[in-house]
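Inputs:
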Amino acid sequence: MAPEAGAQPRVRGWVDGTAPALQERVLHAPPLAFVEYCLRGVGQVMFMNNPFTGLFVLVAAWSFDPWLGFGGTLGVVVSNLVALLMRFDRGAIEAGLFGFNGVLCGLALATFLAPKWDGVATTWIVVVSAGSSIAMAALAALFAKAWGVPPFTLAFNLSVLLFMITGLHTLRGRIGESISPLLPAVDGPQVSTALREHATAAVASSLDGWINAVFRGIGQLFFVNSILGGVLVLIGIAICSRIAAGFALIGVVIGTAVGIGLGASGVAIYNGLWGFNSYDACLAIAGVFYVLTWRSALLGMACAAYTALLFGAIASFLGPWGLPAMTLPFCFGVLTFVMLRGTSPLFTYVEDITTPEDHLARARAQAREGASAG
Amino acid sequence: MAPEAGAQPRVRGWVDGTAPALQERVLHAPPLAFVEYCLRGVGQVMFMNNPFTGLFVLVAAWSFDPWLGFGGTLGVVVSNLVALLMRFDRGAIEAGLFGFNGVLCGLALATFLAPKWDGVATTWIVVVSAGSSIAMAALAALFAKAWGVPPFTLAFNLSVLLFMITGLHTLRGRIGESISPLLPAVDGPQVSTALREHATAAVASSLDGWINAVFRGIGQLFFVNSILGGVLVLIGIAICSRIAAGFALIGVVIGTAVGIGLGASGVAIYNGLWGFNSYDACLAIAGVFYVLTWRSALLGMACAAYTALLFGAIASFLGPWGLPAMTLPFCFGVLTFVMLRGTSPLFTYVEDITTPEDHLARARAQAREGASAG
Amino acid sequence: MAPEAGAQPRVRGWVDGTAPALQERVLHAPPLAFVEYCLRGVGQVMFMNNPFTGLFVLVAAWSFDPWLGFGGTLGVVVSNLVALLMRFDRGAIEAGLFGFNGVLCGLALATFLAPKWDGVATTWIVVVSAGSSIAMAALAALFAKAWGVPPFTLAFNLSVLLFMITGLHTLRGRIGESISPLLPAVDGPQVSTALREHATAAVASSLDGWINAVFRGIGQLFFVNSILGGVLVLIGIAICSRIAAGFALIGVVIGTAVGIGLGASGVAIYNGLWGFNSYDACLAIAGVFYVLTWRSALLGMACAAYTALLFGAIASFLGPWGLPAMTLPFCFGVLTFVMLRGTSPLFTYVEDITTPEDHLARARAQAREGASAG
């Protein structure tokens, strides 16, 4: 039998993959280590355990809107501080698993509360991000015990949605204008699916529309609604994993296509709303949770389409409270497809997640070993 | 000790019970086998693992409305094809466990989308039925791991409800007129509980009203709103199990009585809406999941009443989106009563489900054995 | 090693703690035993396994409104009778675990149905309380199997909420005026947070407002909206556990403060609506589920604040159906914090619940033992 180590090639390095050399070095310098795993937490929104991914995301947020960047940064810092204070699992903290909900809480509240740079709104970002760490620990225990899977970004979604629902009737008018409760109604064939930035803007050309939908979609996962933001996030993903970056692009295209195919509002599609859940779900299934093969690639694309449908459903479901779908579609989409492990022999589930490239290398090493042993 | 086989009498035959002789024969003829387990899938909506039950149901659907029959048939075919493609558990597929969600998806979308015989609607039946097989595999794994119970028709309910909620704001006007979102309001004592077909129709005589409520109720599980349809479905059930057919009748009467007792709209009651969840729940508890005794018969009736209350609640809950309760009441009602296994010594839970008659015969054989051993 | 008994000091007595001497005596007198565990059931709403706690609560309810007291008494009796009939676990019944949902069902329906002393409303109290025992057994099995935790008052919440949602469109006008469905809207800064009894009443002085918010809050867990009621309930808690009574006061203050801090309606705060979930959650975490330390005291206070946020969220979520949050916030708040067991070394989870005082004594005995063994 080959030694365990031989079967487990790891991406080693300072920048690429999970940047383990960097992690080993900074773990001895506490304040630096804190910064490092805060950044990893930002990257973990997309399962990228890499501080440079997180750095690119934060740059995208700060450059799009400093108040957004501030909110996200505050969120990830607070949620990690709470996790340290509560003495939650140190390894999980260092891998960024207590930061990804926090950064999303900060970004979401900076987006949906008003006005900007407000002391009370800042307090609420601190409170909700802190709460999201408690919720993450509890949900992780609930999910692990019952199903043996992680709760994805559910802690963020529940924390922010519950806070915003409370806020409809409290918060002294600090809910921004993008929140508008409305009784659902059956929209007839008049919904305009022509891609455009605002309801009143001119219709975009096909290429221009798609470029906007795709890159804004990649940015929208972090509430960054710009092409530049999307490009920065995509580069961030690619630093950790080129495979993941590729499936991010494929996923956002599929989500956008489902939106167009269903006949959704062209304004929502143009602004990336049909894409951001789908790309995160696509890269999760094609490479992260299942070893990449042409079959798992197809499964990832199916998951991207399924998640886009869930986006339409959840956005519509939340209509009476005027709230957005956040990343709930991603949570339920990925959860559904992750639960397929063990139900079909066609896919190889990854128990010990690092990067898609690493999973592939390990699977190939095991296959070689099996062949040479045979 | 008696041999295992001695304790396990099985209904053997070509038509009756689970028709095992037929299954053994057709399994060697692939295309025929596919048709056979598609039909079993249709019967499995009511836990009847029998192709003739399914055949009678499809005849009821086609004769009520060919577009409805087409939708259901397409749904069961697609969901089984996807299950085969995904290489889900073969035994489960052959027992019809990947068909019952699909047939319901097809029937539901044929009912709620407009217009009939539309290419786009047909595409959506294919997409949603295919998705329901993925959802079934995932939910079955979720439920088995956490609770050791099946997810019943939850995959159908979630797939169709999420698609229809999406459709409120997309689908280019293809949502039919029966979907009408409405803010709940407290209805005063003026609700008319007089049984009648439409709001504007004449009130039915008591006997006529009950006959309609009962048989339309039996048909409504498959969106077949006619007395003839109900009779066909009931005959289909009886081919597999006379016990189940009896409790179907008892269950639909109880559901109807609860509707009348609560003071629900007489139009809904007349059209069988208060009955269809209750009868499926009643036969599930009295005979299928618990060995039939007078106690489990009473439990089944209690479950029928409980499920009728859940129908009222879920239908009202879904009001703001204008969506029907589908078979969610049945899912939650049966789940509640199935979880009672192990909490009370009064009921014998069936681990290996075939037919109520067979469960009874096996329990009696075991009792005899125990007596002779003692 | 010390004998097991040495490590398990128990509060023994006729009145204090769990009053085990009383229980031992009355268990031999069946009709008296039934009364005794009905009263324990009332106390178990706040984890107080003590018949005198329950007695004080019922006195509070009867003295506030005899119809309310009647409803609660009927509810606890019916739910225990059903549990006996179904032969659910005898030890659980005797500890009051099949009564606490029933008493809440009775109190809630007496509050929300109209008119008072109505035969039909009485019937519905019987039906829903009976159903809550079935739901409790099923939910307890579901929660135990998946997560190893109790379902708290979820059976009450689901039973009453589902019944009331059904009732919006049925019940022939017997839904009281406090139920008013309303589409959520974003309330601006004009919400008045000044504490007062009715929208039209004069603003209370700060001290008077707080005294009302605190004691009405303690009473509101049992739908008793009066200072006297709150005092009676608090005395009832203190009979069983002074620690729990202390954290009840702390919890209700925190819940009230969160309501004021968020800018919620002062009328709701004055009437104790922001406090009743929080105090039950606070005492559950600080002492009942975790051994009392200064850390678990802080955790209990955090849980009280978290639960107050959940109250705001769930009350707002249920707006379209006009229904109140009941004790759902308490269920989810406590569930979240109970799931933290095992995720942090800072807290000692209690496996065998009696009273906070007893948990403390046992933990100290174990610590002494460990020290002397070392």
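Chain B is about 65% helix and 0% strand. Flag for discussion at group meeting.
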